């Protein structure tokens, strides 16, 4: 079978956070709703299509959103609720499809290749979408095409409440008239660069020799050129095989210093959370592992609402450590792992214990990017320094 013969469905909830809020309070339906940090320094996490008509979009400063759409209903949002419904959709899909990748809190890819001989893929996807609408009650759109990139662009074009198939011979005619902005992963600075060269439509981008794209934008240029030409070989990665990140420390000499271990744990979690934010990812599961001096190894795991914030992860990791460390025996190793990773970043503004914390994290990440991971730490990592 040729690589180009894939059948990939991309499913994406419509204005996911807003839809969950409407499910909780039907009076919000049909209104301009903006979710995010409510102070002027906050950021928009999500907004209804009615608010988008006024130019509001996610990641926009809340102050600007208020100016553009003063009559909107502003909601702080609840990551617990969004995570709950996110898992519901994933579980429903997991039971029904061969290969499922969870790309973000409200997005999934399904690889139907091979199944198309038994089912019509379009009919299957339509039934799936209807099942989600009926059983979970949240609006969803999908695109069906030959690879992940094209399917995602198709979904974005038919949202909200849309479904569309773009078969192989239709791919290039479908892509050509679209703005290059529609290519997933094409950032603002690249858009400006290409615009200045007169490249605004995908069709124009396909006409540029790939080696020139490489010269101008490096590997990313080549990848954009491929996407413009409807080429994307990236596989749908099954949810259970999706990556996790972790760290562990072995002690120089076996130890029973619980406070010291928690400091170590905090330090490891801080670094992992930073890594998570750098990759624009969120985690929904924390695992703590300890190994006793006699090599007995024990593990505790907990599911949490999607997050990438240190404070939430540190609290959970310490809690798990207390649960797992039951024997008053010397320890030789402690480890922590973050799994169930999905894409998502702007939503971070929702999680924070407060907006101050959110701004603090952003600043700390900036310093780490400039001077290295160890350049800045929370005072809790050095408990002796704050007179505990
Ligand atoms: Mg969505």
Automatic annotation (TrEMBL):
Kindly list the places in or outside the cell where this protein is found, as annotated in its UniProt entry: Cytoplasm
Which E.C. number(s) belong to this protein? 2.7.7.7
InterPro entries listed in its UniProt record: DNA/RNA_pol_sf, DNA_pol_Y-fam_lit_finger_sf, DNA_pol_Y-fam_little_finger, DNA_polymerase-Y, DNApol_IV, Rev_trsase/Diguanyl_cyclase, UmuC
Q: Where's the UmuC domain?
A: 8-187
Gene3D superfamilies, per the entry: 3.30.70.270, 3.40.1170.60, 5' to 3' exonuclease, C-terminal subdomain, DNA polymerase, Y-family, little finger domain
Q: Which SUPFAM superfamilies match?
A: DNA/RNA polymerases, Lesion bypass DNA polymerase (Y-family), little finger domain
Q: CDD domains of this UniProt entry?
A: PolY_Pol_IV_kappa
Q: Where does Mg(2+) bind?
A: 12, 106
Question: What are the protein's GO molecular function terms?
Answer: DNA-directed DNA polymerase activity
Q: What is its main location?
A: cytoplasm
| Record field: catalytic activity | DNA(n) + a 2'-deoxyribonucleoside 5'-triphosphate = DNA(n+1) + diphosphate
How this chain assembles, per its entry, is:
Monomer.
| Free-text function comment from the UniProt entry | Poorly processive, error-prone DNA polymerase involved in untargeted mutagenesis. Copies undamaged DNA at stalled replication forks, which arise in vivo from mismatched or misaligned primer ends. These misaligned primers can be extended by PolIV. Exhibits no 3'-5' exonuclease (proofreading) activity. May be involved in translesional synthesis, in conjunction with the beta clamp from PolIII.
Q: What is this protein called?
A: DNA polymerase IV
- Source species: Pedobacter albus
Q: Which gene encodes it?
A: dinB
